[in-house]
Amino acid sequence: MEENKTNEALVPETIEAETATVAPAETTEETAAPEVSESVNDAEENLKPMATAEDEVTVLVLPDTKQGVIERLREIAQTGGNVARGELEALKQVYYRLHNAEAAAARDAFVAAGGAIEEYVPEPDMDESSFKAEMALIRELRAKALEAAEQEKQKNLSRKLEIIEAIKAAAVSPDEADKQYDTIKALQNEWKEIKNVPAERATELWKNYQLYVEQFYDQLRLGHEMRAYDFKKNLEIKTHLCEAAEKLADVEDVISAFHQLQKLHQEYRETGPVAKELREEIWTRFKEASTAVNKRHQAHFEALKAAEEENLAKKTALCEKVEALAATEAATYGDWEKMTKEVIETQYEWKTIGFTPKKMNAKIFERFRVACDLFFQKKTEYFKSTREALSANLAAKNALCEQAEALKESTDWVSTTNKLVALQKEWKNIGPVPHKASEVVWKRFNSACNYFFDKKNEATASQRQEEDANLIKKEGIIEALKQLLENPEGDVLAKVRELQAAWNEVGHVPFRKKEKIYRRYREVCDKLYDGLHAKADRRRMENFKKSVGEKGGSELQRERNRLMNAYEAKRQEIQTYETNLTFLNAKSKSGNSLLGELAKKVDRLKEELAQIAEKVQAVNEQLKAEKE
Question: Within 10 Å of residue 494's Cβ, how many Cβ atoms?
Answer without folding.
Answer: 9
